[in-house]
Amino acid sequence: MKKTSSFPLILAAAVLSATALQAEQLRWPSWRGAADAGSTAKGTYPAKLDDDHLLWQVDLPGRGCSTPIVWDDLIILTAAKGEEDGVLAYDWKGKKVWDATVGKRRKGKHRNGSSSNSSAVTDGEFVFVYFKSGNLGALNLEGKVLWKHNLQQRYGRDTLYWDIGTSPVITREHVVVAVMNDRKGFLVAFDKGTGEEAWKVDRTYETPVEGDHSYATPHVIEEDGRQVLVVWGAERVTTHEAKNGKLISECAGFNPQKRSNWVVVSSSVIVDDIVIVPYGRGKCLAGVKLGGKGDVTETHRVWERLDNKGCFVPTPAVHDGKVYILGDRGQVRCLDPKSGETLWEGKLPRGAQSYYSSPTVADGKIYAGREDGKLLVAELNEELKVLFERDFETRIVASPVPVGDRILLRNDTHLMCFTEK
Fold it and tell me: The dihedral of CA 40, 44, 50, 52: what is its sign?
C-alpha cells in the first residue's frame, strides 16, 4: 500500500522532476555510492525520518536486504518476487517503472539474510544484479534482461555458511564477481554487453575453517593509468589487473594465530592509497598501502590495531578524509586512515540486537539501522548527539541512501523516501 504525507509542501517536493536537480546529486550507482564511501558531501538531509518527512512509501513484493541504487530518474533494487529473483525500478514519485526476473530464487537461511543480499550496480547503460541462487543478470535501464548466467551451475554450488553478500563491480569493459568460499575461491569477469566470459582466475588459499569465506565486495580503482581490482577475503588483500585478472600484489598475515571462523563480512574501504581492512570478527583493523607488487605483507602494512575496536558486519564509511567505524553494538569511532589512530569515539543506543546495516554519512549526520528495525540518526561530532530514533518494527539491513536531498530507506517490507520539511 502506498502512503504519502499530508503536508502539501512535502507533496509538492515529491513531484519535482529529477531533471530539476543536478544529475550528480541523483546518482548512487552501487551499494556504497560512487566512491565506495557510504557518504555524500552534497545535499541537505532530514534528521527525522518520521511521517512528517515521508514523501512516499511502497510495499515490496518480497524480502531482500540489498541497498537501493540510483541513476537519475530510477531507483533500482532487488527482492524476492514470488519464487523468482526479482529486480524492480521506481521513479521519484514512488511509482514502479518496471520489474523483471532473472531466474529461480534460493531462499536465505540467516535471520538477517535473504535471497537478495547483493546490491545492484550500474554504469548508466547496464544494470547488473547477483543473487544467492548464483543468478547473475544484465539489464538495460528499461528493464530488459540482456543476458544471464547461473554461476553455481557453471562453477559449483557455493559453500558459504550463510547467505551470499558480495555485490558485483564494474570496470570499463566487464562486470566482475568475487566468489570466495571453501578452497575454491575465484574472480570471474564477463563482457558487459554480451555476457561472454572474459576471464576467470583462481583465488584459492589454505586457511583455517571458514577463514576463506568472504561476504565482502571488491573495489575498482585507477592505478598507474590502469584499472585495478582490490579484493579482501581469505585472510588477504590482493590487487589484480582489471582487464585480465592477473595478480599484482598480495598482503597476507591477517590471522597469525590460525584461528577458525575468522570469516570476512565487512568490506574494506579505501582512502587515498590506504586500504582499511576490518578483520578478526570485529577485533582488529589494519591499513595496507596500495601500489606494491608481489608479496607486500612485510612492506605495505602501515598500521594495525588489535584492541577489539573494529567492526564485524557493518562496512565503515569514509567522509572528509576520515574513516567512521560502526561496531555491531553501536560503538562509533572516527579514525585517521594514515595512522589508524582514533580521533574520537562515541556510542549509539544499544539494543538487544545488533547494527547490521552499514552506516551512511550525509549533511553532518550518521544514519545507522539496527536489525530489530530501529533507525538512529546522530550528529557526527565528538559528542555523537542522537538526533532521532525510530522503530520501524521491521528488520533493517540495507544501508540508507542519501541522494538529491532525499533519504531512501529500505527494510524487509517497504521502500521509503524522506526529505527535509
Answer: negative
